[in-house]
Every structure is written in C-alpha cells, then in structure tokens.
Fold Gliding motility-associated-like protein.
Amino acid sequence: MIDMKETTLKLFCILLFISMSANAQREAANWFFGVNAGLDFNTGIPVSVDTGQTNTLEGCSAISDADGNLLFYTDGVTVWNQLHQMMPNGTDLAGSLSSTQSCIIVPNPSNANLFYIFTTDVVDAYNGTNQGPSNGFNYSIVDMTLAGGLGDVTTKNVNLLVNGSEKVSATLSTDGNFWVVTHRNNQFFSFKVTAAGVNTIPIVSNTSTSIPDFNNIRGNMKISPNGQKLAIAHTLFEPVQSGSLYLYDFDSTTGFVSNPSFLGDEITFYGVEFSSNSTRLYATGKFFESESISNIQVQQYDVTAADVANTKFIVFDYPAAQITPSLSGSLQLGLDKRIYHALPSSKLSTINSPNLLGNACDFDFESVDLGMNFSRFGLPAAVQSFYESIATIENFCLGDQTTFTVISQNNVIGVNWNFGDPASGSANTANEISTSHVFSNAGTFTVTAEVSFSDAPNQIFTEIVVIQEVPNIAPLFTIQQCDVDENDSDGLSIFNLQEAISVIEEDNGDDNIDVLFFESITDAQLNENNIANEFYANSVNNQILYARVFSYIDCFTITQVRLNVSSGSNLGVYDTIDVCEVDETNISISQIENILQEDFPNALISIYSTRDDALLLENQLTDFSFVDVNLTDELFFRVSYGSNCGFIGSVQLNIVSQPTVEDQQAFLCGQIGAAVELSFDESFSSYVWSTNETTPSIMVTETGTYTVVVTNSAGCEKEVNYTVVEEPPIVIDEIAVQDFQDVNTITIVLTPDTDMEAVSYSINGGNTFVPSNEFVNMYPGVYDVVVRRGECDAAAETILVGGFPKFFTPNGDNTNDTWELIKKEFYPNAFIELYDRYGKNLVNFKAEGSWDGTYRGMPLPSGDYWYKLTLESGRVVTGNVTLRR
C-alpha cells in the first residue's frame, strides 16, 4: 500500500495557531517534563532542549513571559528558575511526582511578576485510608522581582481543600481573571484568581457522579480553550481496573460546572484534551482483559454534536510493543496547536490537526524526538485559554485569498489584523472582523489579531500561517514497463507507482512533495477514490492515470502519467550460468550481472528472486543478499535503459563451490628486523597477494592484515585474510589515573599472568624506563604509557590526566590571563560552575569556554574561588583556583 500518512493533511506544517490572553502571547512556549525532557516552541516547531531538571512520573507545569522567555517550572514539589536552579524556598511544595496533574501555574491577571502554583492531592498521601491525612489542594506564590529577577517562593502551601484529587485545570474568566478548578467526590471546586490574589472560598458545583474511593482520584481534567466545556477522566483502580469519561458545561462567568454527559466506560480513561477551537475532545485509555493489560487507545469525540458519545472515533491503537503498566498517558495542547501524547519513551506522539474530524486529525506516532531524555506519563499543564484559536483560516496556496473567519462564543466588536507581510504594502493590515489576505510570497507568516469583545476582555491572538507554492511540473510523463506474462501482445503488466513518483519528483526538483494517483481527472480534481496500492495493473496499453501533485493537500497540480508496456520484453529462460558460491547463504550476484552485461552493453542489470520482484523493482539482490544455495537454481534479471524496462528474463544456475580455505593468523616479534612467513599449500591454481606477489608464500616484516585471492581449478575465487600481529606477552590490565588532584598519579597494572621479569615502565617512551609502575605529581595532559620487557615486546596506551591551572593572572599581559580546563578538547559537553567563598554562583560555561576573572563584566579581587566540574560521564569534580592580580 502507498503510505498516505504524510500525504493526507499536513495542516500542522501549514497552519500553526498561537492564541493568548491580552498582553500575553507565549507563556506556554517552554515545556519541562519527564526525565530531564524539554521542548521549546518559540519557533512554532518544538525543539528539544536538555537543560531541564525534572524527574517526575506525571504532572508538571512551566511558565514563560509574553516573549517566550522561560521564567520557571515545577513538578509540584520543587521549583526551578530560568537558570535551571532550585528557586529559594522552592522545595517541599505539597504536590507529588506521582500525581496525575500535580500542579499548574497561573499568573496574576494584573501583575506580571506574581504567579500562583496550585498543587493537587495524590493517592499515595492517604496512607491506606480514605480519611487522610492527605496533601489536599494548595497554592504557593512566586514573586519574580526577587532573587535578582530569578524569582522566589514567598508563600508556600496555603491550604484550600483538606482532601482533593489529582485533577486541576485553569481558564480565563469572562471578566479577565482566572478560574482554577479541581474535583473531589461528586463536587467541582472553582477558585478565582484576581488582582487581589486567590479567593479561598470556591464556587462549588454538585454532580450526580461520585468518586468516593481515594484509590480512584487519578485521571486528567481539562477545561476547553474557549472556557465553555470541561472533560474529566476517572482512572479507577478499586475494586477493579476500570474507568469513565464525562463531558460537562463550564460557565466561565460564574465558575459553575453543569450538564454532565457520560461518554464511556469501556476503557480505563486517563488523559483528556480539547482541540484549540474547542470543537473536538480527545481521550486516552487502556483496555484491561482478564486482569492483564491490553492495548492503549486514543479516542476522539465531536463536542459540537447533539449526541457527543455517539461520535466516538478511534484515532490510534498503540502497537503491543508500546504497552506500559497501568496508565495510558496524558494529552496536552502545544503552542503549535498540535496535541501531544506522553508515554515512557524518548519520543512523543502527536495529533497534528486536532480540530479536524476522523482520520483527518492526523495522528503521528512518536513524531517528536526528545534526544537523550525521556517522557513518562505527564506533560506540562497551563491555563487552557493560552491555546485558544479564534479564527478558522483557509486557502494556503501562493496567489490565493487566504481567509480568516472569526468564530467566538463572545460578541466580537472589532479586530485589528497584522498579516506579518510588509511586502504586501498597505494590504498588510485590516480591521474587518473576518477578512482575507493575498500573501506576497511563499513562506511562514506571523499573523496578529487584536480582538475586542463587548462582553469579555480584549485578547491578542497570534496565528502562524505557512503559504505553499503550487508544484511546477510537466503535463505528461510516460512510464515504461516490461510484459508481465508470456503474452507479449496484450499490453498488460503491473506498474510500481513509486517509480512514477520518483520521475515526477525529479522533474519538480524537489522530493518533498506528495503524489496521489487517480483513474479519472474528475477524481483527481475532487481528491476522491485515489489508487491506494502502489502496484497497479493497467487495463489497456498506454492507459492514462492522473497524478495530483502537492506539498500541501490543496496546493496541487494535476499531470498525466501514461503507462506503456514494451512488447517482446519477456525473454523467458535466457541462459544457464556457472556461478561461484560465496558461502552456503550467498552466491556471487555480481558475477551474474557481469556475464549478462556482456550481452546487454550500456544497460543496467539487476537480479531478483522472483519475476514479480524484477517487474516491480522490489527486493533487488546483491552479493550480500541471503540466497539459499541448496534451494536456488533460477534467478530473474531485469535489463533497464534509464528508467525504462528493456527486458525481463531468468537464468538457470550451476552453483560452483568456492575454494576451501579459512582466514589465517601469524605472530611477529616487535624487534627490529623480525620477519614471518605467510604461506598456503600449492593446491590452488593462482594466488594474488595484496603485496602484488603471486607465489604461495611471502615473507613480511610488518604487522597488519594481508589479503590473498586464491582461485581453484573451477575458476572460483576466495579472498583470504592473513592477519599478522605482535606476540602478546605483555598486556596492560588497567591504568588507574587519579586526576583533578593537587598531586595527580598514574598507576599501571598488568594482567596477573604477566611474567614480570625485566619489565619496565615509561611515560612518553624515550630511553627513560623505570621499574616502578607508579608515576606521581603528573601535570594535566595527554601521556603515552609504555611497558616493555628488555628491548622487545612493548605495550603502550595513551591516557588523559585531567586538571585545571592552580592559579591565573588576568592582568592583560597575555600570560595566564584566563582560567580554563587543560586539554579541554578531550572533554565534550563538560560543564563548569564557579562560586565565590560565600557560595555565590559567578559564572557557568561549557568546557570549550574560559573565565577571565570577572563577574558581570567587573573584575573580581584576588583570592581563591571554587569550581564544580560536571563531566559528560556524570562524574563531578570540585576544587579551587587562585586569582592573582
């Protein structure tokens, strides 16, 4: 089948939405989660970062400023600042590393320097009872004006609910403040955050569904980005594994939750998330059968439908290899308006177009690489309103009128548009509520909409739009194929449409295009009934197919593809060939190619196991392909001229055994003038050595691998390796290096069975050999360690002694002006931190950097300073350096 995954809808590459509250745009631009995992969304595409300090099983949260600069992040227990250091007083928050939604960060709506970290309860805190004590629902306050702008936790663990759950979500209220909502038993609690802080008296909503057992307080809860809906997943562990999913109305004016809608209980639900326009709901869950864990499933629901439960669509069933214990992983919207799915892995999966129904939502399995770091079950929570999309944007082809249609639950009274396209002149701005724009060229544009409401605070929405060119290709391509059967006159065969794609890509000069094939031009124009199989059987010779060529699904060109079958191209059984056996699983394919090349000069010869493979250019054989010599007596070949098939035929094989001889080894003493003979018996018809000698034996004076090609009487060759090595009487078992010390030492340890008579040791060779295996007071650097017995049989290794200069003098005389790691080129990814005697961090830099004795551009006084070196291996070294002026 043709893989249509990336050819269906590439909306996530074409249309990226970012919407924020007034005076805010990129608060959710940085994520830190899992095991040191991080993503930066500031370019519109997530970029992996590896500076994060989290090591959490589930919930976490992060906050950035309006320009996307990281402020701080937390796992609900510890708070790290933008330098990835623990914030003052930022430990022992009342969240938990194993709480579903351990925490969420909410800004003060009127003070850009004040933030509230809400932390949730956790099953583990109940100590086996349903009454407590528990963590409860709490909040802490971060003031970013403190600690030199890096922030300080000023108030910690203010209790709002004695007992809670592992659920929390937040959204804008209609008056420009925020609602923070949590759940317990059969009640929702909505706490309002205003300029005055957190109102500790919640709005309480009672429901008919109760979850009284503390073992069942797990599962995600999310408010829709437009603040109109609330979804909750109940992950039930007692009395048996089960789950349930509900959808409610949420009133962002009053904070009330109402109108429950039961969506399902067939799986153990865990993750929930809405699409950016709040029309679709997604949920994850696991099937549990006979107390054994079954597969993970991602589901979609149409929130706009009258019967939401009946719109369930299975977006993806994870393969068995991805099944993990107990939990099905969280879902979270990103700034690019894709929904991300976390499971224990070094990659995240994505729903690329979550606003679209069914398969068009485009689930992409493990599409985002986290580098050397790992996700677990949680992703960073944020105020859901940060992700809202207000405009439906259509038409992304260069030259089209790109339309922006505003749809909002609130009353929009005005929109000021800036299309980020200054080359379009005065057309770069508009003030219609719904508008259109013709972009001046292909590329990425940041479109800003300042929206005014009569019944809600003003908001700023940023839409990132990618405009695509329409492919420029020839109107007709002809693909030639050989006959498929013995009837050379019927003009019928099977075509590999991937070959047609390659020809079209070459004509377009770009392999980053997609091609769909259709039998009629009407289907091609409507993008209906495309040919799903990459192998196509034509119905008549010179049949025309229609190819829809595009980078983005709607920016397309239609071209014709003629399927031509060459008559008389089936050669049948062409010849019988003697072919040499390489081994019991390989024969010399190149030998067959060379023999056929003589009959078909200037053609490309390729060999296959079956006629269909030859016809469809599948599974081509090489000298390294597995061929069972006991079962194979016929192979098929294809003769091609350019991209056209000339002939297809087969050859009968007479397999001839190769010479029987194995690789050899010889030993050479390391003494000057030593030599060794390499020899074979004289039963072979010829010998060709890599030294160009042609005798059965040769003398060599150097170690190394010598090759000889021997040929038997049948003409089959075999290349034999003759390896010459030094005799191994001395083996270094270990070289122990004690470095980064005041006195560095090197200790050489030989294997226990080494004859120690006349053994001596040297650093950097030369004539200075000593009987002691220990060298002390070694200056940092690279050394050659040499061990020998008498004047022969030496063993040597190169080692590295690490260290720093003990002092430096930054006085501008170009001598010792900077302090840096000695031989720093050997310490990739090492990281150095410098502190004064009071423990104040002065500077941090990687191994390739250096320190000039200043702090923030000002010279520091003479004295001792302390360093911490963290090597790539994880080793940590501490010490001090003296600065002299």
